[in-house]
Each structure stands twice: as structure tokens, then as C-alpha cells.
Amino acid sequence: MNLEEKFKMLQLCYAAALADSTLRYSNEGILEKIMGQKRNEQMKNGAMLAKKFSVQDPKQAFVNVQNLFGCASWNCEDIENGFFAVNMSCILCSMCKKTGASSPCQIYCLSPIEAMIKGIKPSATFSVRKTLWNDDKCFVTVEL
User: Fold this and answer.
1) Rounded CA Rg of the chain
2) For a tag on the chain, would you pick the N or C end, based on fewer CB atoms within 10 A?
3) Which of 143, 140, 83, 135 is nearest to 109 (CA)?
4) Residue 75 predicted with pLDDT over 90
């Protein structure tokens, strides 16, 4: 197995571990509680997260997470007062749907991305319009 194949396998194993934890939190009825706790931690540590993910520009929060985890495929386009990000597929979302888990979108994807953006640009507005959980794509607008 070459290095690229190993990396892809690790990405799949990571997504499977996140799907498993989402299923277990869902089954225990604690997903909402943990999601709130994690969101608070992520928002407090947004600047540190951004630094660890080499995010210096808000769009990089989407791109750098995508490049590392290989779970989603975000495309960003500029608009007058910021940009929007669209994603048409997500391995983690698919895995969670197949296992009967609840949505992993906020806890493992959107909240960390929002935290990084606000960590480098505190005045930014992050609005989730759609997710693949209940729609055909993820659609997020970021006003800067």
C-alpha cells in the first residue's frame, strides 16, 4: 500500500470513528448536550484551531479541513460582502445515515469551520442555509 492509499484509508477510518461516536451519542440521548459543549470549546479556541489548520483566510477553513480529512468537497465563491461555500458530497454524512445516527454536520464539520473563521475574523457572520443531512447539498454563507 503506497502513502496515498494509506492516507485515504486513514481518512476513511477517521470518518468511521466520527460516525460511530455520533451514533453512540445519539443512542444515549446526549448528542445535543455534547454538541453544545464542543461548540463552546471550539468557539473559545477558534484562533488556535485556525493556527493549527494553517487558516489565515476564511475560505481556507473550508479548504484546509477538506484537504486534511477528505470527507467533504467544498467549493467557495466570492459574493459582494464575503463568500459562499457549497458541498455536494460528504462521506461522514453518508456513513451516519447508513448507521441510523443523527446528523454529524454541526459537531464535526460546521462548528469547527465557523470557529476557525471567527477566530481570525471575529466580526464574520456564518450562516448555514442547507446541509446534506436534509437537502441535496451543504450551503453556507460567510459575510466578512
Assistant:
1) 15
2) N
3) 140
4) yes
| CA nearest neighbour of 72 among 3, 138, 4 | 138
Q: Calculate what percentage of the chain has a pLDDT beyond 70.
A: 100
52 CB burial (10 A radius; 0-12, 13-18, 19+): exposed
Q: Does residue 61 contact residue 81 with C-beta atoms inside 8 Å?
A: no
Give the containing element (helix H, strand E) for 94: helix 91-99
For residue range 7-21, list pLDDT tens digits in order.
999 999 999 999 999
- E strands in the chain: 72-79, 82-90, 125-130, 138-143
Q: Does 1 have pLDDT greater than 90?
A: no
Residue-wise pLDDT tens digits, 25-58: 999 999 999 999 999 999 999 999 999 999 999 9
Q: Is the pTM of this model over 0.90?
A: yes
Write the DSSP symbol of residue 57.
S
Rounded CA separation 138/128 (Å) = 8
Query: For residues 31 and 2, what is the distance between their CA atoms, to the nearest angstrom?
Result: 37
